[in-house]
Amino acid sequence: MRRPGGGEAMPRPCRETLVRVDVVTDNADIVAATAAKIFADLGDPRVINTSADDTWKPRLWQALTQTGLTLAWVAEGQGGGGASLADGFAIIGAAGRYAAPVPIAETLLAGWLLSQAEIASPVGEMAVAPMHPADRITLSSDGTLSGSARGISFAQEARHFAVCVHDGAARWIALVEAAACAIPGGRSIAGEPRSTVIFDRVRPVRIASAGSDFDQISVMLMGAAIRSVASAGALESLLGLSLTYANERIAFERPIGKFQVVQHNLARLAGEVAAAMTAAGSAADCIARAGGFDDAVFLEVAAAKIRSAEAAEQAAAIAHQLHGAMGFTREHILHRYTLRLLSWRDDFGNESYWAAALGNRIAAAGADELWPLLASQRDHPEMTLDTARLCFDQIRLPPECNELRQEVRAFIAHEVAAGTFDPSDPRHGDLHNPELSRRIGARGWIGMTWPKKYGGHERSFLERYVVTEEFRVANAPVRLHFVADRQSGSILLKYAPEHIKMDILPRTCRGELCFVIGMSEPGSGSDLFAAKTKATRTRGGWLINGTKVWTSNAHLAHYMLGLFRTSPATKENRRHGLTQFLVDMKTPGIRVNPIYQLTGQHDFNEVVFEDALVPDDHVLGEVDGAWKQATSELAYERSGPERFLETFYVLSGLARAVGPKPDLRSAEGLGRLVAQLHTLRRMSVSVNGMLQRGEEPVVEGSLVKDLGTAWEQKLPARVRELAAFLEPEVANRATLDEQIAYATMIAPKLTIQGGTTEILRGIIARGLGLR
User: Fold this and answer.
1) H or E stretch including 677?
2) How do residues 709-739 score in pLDDT, each as one tens digit?
3) What is the distance in angstroms between the CA of the first residue and the CA of the last residue of the chain?
4) Which residues in 399-480 belong to E strands, given as ranges?
5) pLDDT surpassing 50 at residue 531
6) What is the spatial distance between Cα 416 and Cα 90, in angstroms, rounded to a whole number?
7) What is the model's pTM?
8) For site-directed labelling of 575, which of 351, 428, 554, 716 has its Cα 20 to 30 A away?
């Protein structure tokens, strides 16, 4: 696509693994396609940025008006387009991707608001009042409106305002001529019109009842969702802009995108963009499907506004650092995105407002309702919007998942009541309980996705996900069987001979076997290419010599899936020469040496091989070609809920300790943490949906792991800060302190296990086309 006058279209991210390259796919709705074309032809930020005047603005607005996009959310009988909520959000997403400095979102929202009271919308620019949660416009006995509304976007350009009016317990919606109001001058940091609008006994053109179930919070929710969707679109383009610049800008005789530190920053940027898009798309789709503003919508919208605002701050900083002095100039279009993103954070309640509101609602419901809120019945509505461009699609969990969740919760409650484990004791999640593993296996909850002929149950990855997250949230001691269930069994299914599958997999499903992963080695760690432990062919098999390290649970494991060097690597291909083996840990020549963690627990081990003989039929897959299957295995390891729920007990402990009426600081902190976790869960479930479709989401799994482990690593420190303001005698304070202390001790390992942050960001950078 090219803009008028020549030149390339707006730069976009280049790898389909992360981003859908086309602005609009062949199957996209005609409304979204029309909006995208208009903005591309008439709203390209580079044309606007170099324009000597604002002659582009009337042409753009006229095109939007003539195609009916400005009144898309107004019913046809009232002179509008009669488009769905999903279509309107698609228009707003397109406007965000082009950072369009016209009141398309404001006019759409105003039309929607007027429609709630069946008031016909006039043609022309409109804005909504109020946009700040604390502002009130009241109705006097003589039918006039009084009050003021701060920070109204495009107030000076609006011809009319759609106003949410208070009159005691009653709620009204009014159409007001802008000329009847006092509108002092003002600009946002992005240079767009923004002002306080003063209603001094203003008589509305029309006013009607909003209905008993509609109030100002409904407007705030809708407006917050709109700004989140626009921000997600702008962030997507910001990522594309930054990638293009990194590949074109030459420094020290090569593109700056080839420098590792730049790649890692761009990987961080991609993570923030993905999180914002996931949250915004989920919120918009939830509103489009719900038909009202219930608790689920509140959670989705609050999380989206919080997460998109946080992403805007992080992304703007990264993008400006990347662009250097060039990005700090008016002549470069970067500011078109960054300043709008930073400005939109304050509209319809900033992230602190929504975090406090969400935190208060969670606290009032009680800590026991925290997880049910996050794992609610309305799990992951199917994505239908053209707003979320990254591949973290929203997935609707089928009914059987919700039924299964209740079964697992009942089982866990029974085990807790029987004294099997204590969910509040942080150490219990790191323990091994063979009897519990066998009982879980007897329920059919190990090897759930595997074929029945091997002891599995042929259930979906999403059902397995439900089981995994419920046991993780409960802090249950399931480590004995967890690795085998998560990844080892799946590798055996793909690559092991039939007789091995028939022997090992049914025992795994019964909870009888523990597996260990043998990848890291002394001196190499995450650099698996540098593996030196040799497998040398001999009569009847292979002799293994060398050392593996950081092998969790090797002292308990029955089998190892080991990655060994069978041929030298070549300069052209470092991946060559690695082969994966199934190793019986009782094999002579294997010695397991304990490595004690700083918590005092024994989980890590050093495994030394001295002429350990592994039979030929224990080779998994292709000799010398195991790199691809090993990295595929890591997608299972890196994307699951255990990568952000390992310290969940700290979050639930905070919710329990703050009580039903937390102070503002505690409420805001709790709300932010819940919003961040909610978004991570959305992304993680999406990756499991990809696994269900037979895909190998290596890059997406790396994004989830990078964001997830960084979040849970910071969690105990953040909760510790919040706990400082709790009264010493508060109930559950001692338990919370113990949980914080243990989580603080294990926090350093979280961004290391399963692949270090640096390795993950390298994988993401490759997915972005930087390597």
Assistant:
1) helix 664-692
2) 999 999 999 999 999 888 876 778 889 999 9
3) 26
4) none
5) yes
6) 47
7) 0.90
8) 554
pLDDT at 389 over 70: no
Give me the amino acid identity at 364: A
Written as six digits, the tokens of 64 are: 């939007």
pLDDT at 304: 97
Is residue 221 a contact partner of residue 295, using CB atoms and an 8 Å limit?
no
Residues 6+ apart with CB under 8 A from 351: 305, 306, 309, 310, 345, 672
Rg, C-alpha atoms of the chain: 28
Report whether 722 contacts 665 (CB < 8 A): yes
d(CA 290, CA 693) in angstroms, rounded, equals: 27
Average pLDDT rounded to a whole number, residues 301-328:
97
Separation CA 500–CA 489 (nearest Å): 11
pLDDT surpasses 50 at 5: no
Non-local (6+) Cβ contacts of 136 within 8 A are 130, 147, 166, 216
Read off the pLDDT of each residue in 69-79 and give the average, rounded to a whole number: 92
Which positions ≥6 away from 160 have C-beta within 8 Å?
110, 122, 124, 126, 175, 176, 177, 178, 205
Task: Match 């930020």 to its residue by tokens.
Answer: 45
d(CA 404, CA 468): 11
Q: What tens digit of pLDDT does each residue of 481-516 get?
A: 999 998 899 899 999 999 999 999 999 999 999 999
Helix intervals (H) in 552-624:
none
Q: Which of 713, 604, 647 is nearest to 472 (CA)?
A: 647
Half-sphere exposure of 388 (CA within 13 A, CB side): 27
Gap between the Cα atoms of 175 and 166, Å rounded: 14
- Are 207 and 252 contacting, i.e. CB atoms less than 8 angstroms apart? no
- pLDDT value of position 1: 25
Count Cα atoms within 13 angstroms, Cβ side, for 717.
8
Largest CA distance in the chain: 100
Query: Cα dist. 514→97, 549, 592, 608 in Å?
Result: 49, 17, 15, 19
Peptide bond into 398 cis (omega under 30): no
How far apart CA 474 and CA 715 sit, in angstroms, is: 17
Residue with tokens 């190793």: 583
- pLDDT attached to residue 392: 52
* Assigned token pair, 463: 């059902």
114-141: pLDDT as tens digits = 999 999 999 999 999 999 999 999 999 9
